[in-house]
Design brief:
Layout: H1 13-26, H2 39-46, H3 50-64, H4 75-78
Helix pairs in contact: 1-3, 2-3
């Protein structure tokens, strides 16, 4: 998974991460059933705090209505409210 995070930008890292994961799902870069990295792995890979990664996953869960972020949900479930 490729992400570009601006550590000094005005948009929070959590929001950047959430948005980019949603875009990856919608573009099918992350197809349904693809496992997302653990929060620790995501934090290590992109040099963010693991709490930031956890918050982004919680936001994705809430938006998708899924009880788990271990697998990417279908793109139709991630569309906005």
């Amino acid at each position: 998974m490729r992400l570009w995070l601006n550590h000094t930008g005005e948009v929070s890292l959590r929001e950047q991460l959430t948005t980019q994961i949603i875009l990856a799902i919608l573009s099918r870069e992350l197809p349904p059933g693809h496992r997302l990295p653990s929060t620790r792995e995501l934090a290590r890979r992109f040099q963010i705090h693991s709490n930031t990664a956890s918050a982004a996953y919680r936001q994705l869960e809430a938006r998708a209505g899924s009880s788990s972020v271990t697998a990417v949900v279908s793109s139709s479930a991630v569309r906005g409210p």
